[in-house]
Write a structure and sequence with these properties.
Blueprint lengths: L7 E4 L5 H12 L3 E6 L3 H13 L3 E6 L5 H16 L7 E6 L14 H22 L3 E10 L14 H19 L5 E7 L8 H4 L1 H8 L10 H12 L10 E4 L6
Parallel strand pairs: 1-2, 1-4, 2-3, 4-5, 5-6, 6-7
The structure holds NADP nicotinamide-adenine-dinucleotide phosphate.
NADP nicotinamide-adenine-dinucleotide phosphate binds next to helix 1.
Length: about 250
């Protein structure tokens, strides 16, 4: 019996990078996975193809989380999917992974940059959790993908880092609020991971400087992060809540 058999999961931002790896891994572990994406349908379809290749299954949902309306749309579309599969509709695992980075110093950040980062990286996950709480199963899991940036000080992340810290703090607050329902809420802090969001991590010219700050001496790939999320989603991870788990190979220690 697979550890997540009969579970339904939603992974936001699963068309690429870390979200794709999480979606594929949760499906390998037996979950039916909602593969959310913004615009890259072909990429999201590739994620679903990988899931099916591994013997799993899932479904696609598009929504732009830069818009408050996108959160409502995503929640409604998910509810529609859940209704076709379960009565009453229930979601077991919510992974808030979708995110953006925008490397600028404080002098360069515009108010529009600030609002966009806040919306996608904090307001959207916040209100997605709020809207989905009625259908999150008792004993369910909420896993927020935050960042090592919440602990380290990168001068080009004056909005990203504090916003990620807010997402981690929200996880702790909700862990207490949702404890009586047996729902665990945790934050995962990836370190530098080779994806589109972090081009320096895959650039031979620039990645050496990052690698030198990592105790385990290499740059992560998305597959280094996904098992941590899968563990938190599993029955075995059920006694962990309100925690921040750093998955960075010991970056910046
Ligand atoms: N890579 C790193 O070094 C690193 C380190 C620490 C934390 N993280 C965090 O890990 C998470 C995943 O990052 P990643 O590196 O995998 O990024 P990525 O490869 O750039 O993928 C980002 C994902 O988020 C989705 N997304 C972006 N803007 C969106 C919007 N407005 N509405 C809905 N979805 C949107 C994208 O969808 P489309 O493909 O449709 O655009 C894509 O699926 C993020 O929260 C990031 O902050 C990453």
């Amino acid at each position: 019996m697979k550890p997540l058999a009969d579970r339904i999961a939603l992974v936001t931002g699963a068309s690429r990078g870390i979200g794709r790896a999480i979606a594929v891994r949760l499906a390998q572990d037996g979950a039916l996975v909602g593969v959310h994406y913004r615009a890259e349908r072909d990429k999201a379809k590739e994620t679903l193809d990988l899931i099916r290749l591994g013997g799993g299954d899932g479904f696609l949902i598009a929504a732009d989380l830069a818009e408050p309306a996108g959160v409502s749309y995503l929640a409604a579309a998910l509810l529609g999917e859940l209704r076709t599969r379960r009565d009453p509709p229930k979601l077991d695992i919510l992974v808030n992974n979708a995110g953006i980075d925008d490397r600028k110093s404080i002098e360069q950040v515009t108010e529009a940059d600030f609002d966009r980062m806040l919306q996608i990286n904090f307001k959207s996950p916040f209100f997605l959790i709020q809207k989905l709480l009625p259908v999150v199963a008792d004993g369910g899991r909420i896993i927020n993908i935050s960042s090592i940036a919440a602990r380290l000080s990168f001068p080009t992340m004056p909005v990203y880092a504090p916003v990620k810290a807010a997402l981690s703090t929200l996880s702790r607050v909700l862990a207490v609020h949702l404890g009586p329902r047996g729902i665990t809420v945790n934050a995962v802090h990836p370190g530098a991971t080779s994806t589109d969001l972090n081009p320096a991590a895959s650039d031979p010219q620039r990645s050496g400087a990052i690698r030198d700050t990592v105790a385990l001496g290499r740059i992560a790939g998305p597959d280094d992060i996904a098992p941590v999320v899968a563990f938190l989603a599993s029955r075995e991870g059920g006694w962990i809540t309100g925690e921040t788990i750093e998955a960075s190979g010991g970056q910046g220690l």
